[in-house]
Amino acid sequence: MRDEVRTLLAACGQVMSIGDLQALGFGPDEVRAMVRSGELVRIRRGAFVSGVVWRAAAPWERPALRARAVLRGLGPEPAVAPSHQSSLAVQAVSVHGTDDRVHLCRLDDGRSRQDDVVCVHRRVPAAFLIDTDVGPCVHAALASLQVATRFGVEAGLVSADAALRLRMATRAELEQALHVLRACPRRAAAARVVELASPLSESAGESRTRWVLLAVGLPLPEQQAEIADEHGLFVARVDFLFRRERVIVEFDGMLKYDDPTALRREKLREDRLRELGYEVVRLTWADLADPRLVERRLRGAFARARARR
Questions:
Q1: Where are the domains of the chain?
Q2: Minimum mean pLDDT among 11-20, 177-186, 257-266: which range?
Q3: DSSP line for the chain
Q4: Environment class of 298 (CB within 10 Å of its CB; exposed 0-12, middle 13-18, buried 19+)
Q5: For residue range 129-152, what is the model confidence (pLDDT) as tens digits?
Q6: What is the arithmetic mean of pLDDT over 257-261?
Q7: How many CA atoms lie within 13 A of 243 on its CB side?
Q8: Which candidate, 30, 29, 23, places its Cα nearest to that of 2?
Q9: CA dist., res. 190 & res. 201, Å (int)
């Protein structure tokens, strides 16, 4: 990659516009050559991301890169701000179950519009815009509920839980944001997110687990519950606890098991919980894709726990 392009990309968060390239003296043929070679990835007309960074980015890192590139391509003072999952991605709030388009809201009274890459919505109240390193963005509270109205409760819950956990939103702000959506046809989905949102969900997997449990008709368990032994000594803190049924549910992202020591420690912990009379159910990302499987596993654990008693 040309040194001047590499330098500008580093200064601009690994994104650049056609105007940036023209200012460096590159013409259309040279830009097309950089795209063909993979030095740059074109997100849309006039908006680019570093090819090296794009290819190395995890799927959950790409929405922020897309949003940043589109904004850069719109010029120094675009009349739009990131909204929905694009605002959340820019603010490093978890996103799940959305589309790949960049969602923006207008800062003026212009109309909404959309294409294959960008979806522009009508303006939101100024009170729900915050300053970020890319300019104004929709507040995480409202953005989470915007996601719910467009992609469903589960998607909105993942982001709302994360926003509460990261202290980027409060329950009061979620309730205020819900009032902004009072005329939205899918307001009920947003209202359900406000009702269920919890700062105790420590990952997107835990947020999704809560939703799947509800979706199959199970009650919500305690979150981040502490387990003690017969002497009252602390044994473990678990993701979810059905206390009366004596069933523990752990969401297992599997990432920690690259360390053999961590794997052994986790096995000993689980053995101790079973010694105390608890059933332990581990759920993975694949399990969450099959809610009926989750229901069967939980109901089987309830039955085993009853038989023990």
A1: 3-196, 204-308
A2: 257-266
A3: --HHHHHHHHHTTTEEEHHHHHHTT--HHHHHHHHHHTSEEEEETTEEEEHHHHHHS-GGGHHHHHHHHHHHHT-SS-SEEE-HHHHHHHTT----S--SSEEEEESSSPPPEE-SSEEEEPP--GGGEEEETTEEEE-HHHHHHHHHHHH-HHHHHHHHHHHHHTTS--HHHHHHHHHHTTT-TTHHHHHHHHHH--TT--SHHHHHHHHHHHHTTPPPPEEEEEEE-TTS-EEEEEEEEETTTTEEEEE--SGGGGSHHHHHHHHHHHHHHHHTT-EEEEE-HHHHT-HHHHHHHHHHHHHHHHHH-
A4: buried
A5: 999 999 999 999 999 999 999 999
A6: 67
A7: 8
A8: 30
A9: 18
Topology of the domain comprising 204-308: Endonuclease; Chain A (3.40.960)
Residue 260 pLDDT grade (very low, low, confident, very high; cuts 50, 70, 90): confident
| The two structure tokens encoding residue 139 | 């507040």
Residues 6+ apart with CB under 8 A from 52: 1
What does the block give as tokens for 219? 């009650």
Q: Give per-residue burial for 225-241: e unless 16+ CB within 10 Å, then b.
A: bebeeeeeeeebebbbb
pTM of the predicted model, to two decimals? Answer: 0.92
